[in-house]
Amino acid sequence: MPNHPVAPVGTPRVLVLADELPPGLAEVERVAEVLCMPEARLAEELPVAEVLLVWEFGTEALPAAWPADGGPRWVHTASAGVDKLMFPALNDSDAIVTNSRGVFEQPIAEYVAGQVIALAKDFFGTYDLQRDRVWRHRPTHRVAGSHAVVVGGGPIGRATVRTLRALGIRAQLVGRTRREDDPEVGLVHGFDALDGLLPEADWVVNAAPLTPQTQDLFDAKVFARMKRGAHLINVGRGPSVVEEDLSAALESGQLGGAALDVFRTEPLPADSPLWQAPNLLVSPHMCADTIGWLDDLAEVFADNFARWRDGRPMRNVVDKQLGYVPVDTVTSPAAVGGNR
C-alpha cells in the first residue's frame, strides 16, 4: 500500500447510511456527490460508491449488501466501537475503516465519574427516600482515596483514568499489553494482571472494545474475585458482561452496586431481570451523547474526508485484525485511501 492515499479522480460518490442526511456535511457536499441511503437501497448503490459513512451505526444491513466486486474504498462509522460494523467480507477487503475517536472520550469519562460519586454518596437512595418523604440520616463513602481498575487501554479508558484521578481516586489502567512508562497514565497493566488487581478495587470500569478477550469477561468468577461491596460500571460493550451473573452478584451483595449503559440486547427488553436488580442503574446507551454531539461526529468525518481527498494520512484508522484503533495511532501513512 502506498505511503499516501491516491486522491480520487473526478467527483467522488459518498453514501450516507441514514434515513436523513446528517448536519455538518456542507463542505463534503461542495466537492462530492453525497447520497443519503436507507438500508433498503444499500445493496444497489454500494458497488459504485467510493466512500460509505455509516451514520446509523447500529445497522445490521451491511454484510448482506456488501458487493462481491467493487465497493467503497473507505468506510467510516459515526461510533467509537466497530464490533457491530465488522464482518468477514469487509475485513478481507482493501477498504480502509475509520471510526469517530475523539468525540466520546471525555463525555464517557464524565459519566463514569458521575456514577462513582452517585453510588458512593447514595444519591439514588436519597431520591427514593425523598419520594417517600422519609428523613433518614446515614453515612456514605468517601471517593478520594478509593481504588478503581479501568479495563480498556484506549482513549476512553485513558480519559476515565485521568478524570477519576482528578477526584483523588487511585485509578489503574488495564490494557492489552503492559507499558511501563506510558506518557499519559504511567504504568499500564497487561490484561494478565486483571485477576490480581480485582480484589483491591472499589470500582471496576469496563471501557474495553468487544473482542474475543473481552466477550463474557465479567462473569461469576470475576465477580467472586472482586472485593465484597465493590461496584461495576460498564461503558464498553454489553456482551462483555454476563447479565445473569451480574444480577446474582447484586442480589447476594457480592457487588454493592452497578451502572450499565450498554447491554446484550438493546433496547433492554421490558422483561429483563436487570430492571429490578438491586442497586443497579440502567441508562439507555447514552453516556457519550452530549448536546452538539452530532455536529462533532460530522466534523470528524469531514476532516477525514478532506485528508482522503487530498491524499494525506487519515485519522482514526481501525486495525481490522485487532478490532479497534491502536492507542498510539493518530494518523497512519499506511492506512489510507487508494485504488483497489
From TrEMBL:
InterPro entries: D-isomer_2_OHA_DH_cat_dom, D-isomer_DH_NAD-bd, NAD(P)-bd_dom_sf. Keywords: NAD, Oxidoreductase. It comes from the Bacteria. The keyword Transcription regulation does not apply. Residues 36-318 form the D-isomer specific 2-hydroxyacid dehydrogenase catalytic domain. Belongs to the D-isomer specific 2-hydroxyacid dehydrogenase family. This is D-2-hydroxyacid dehydrogenase.
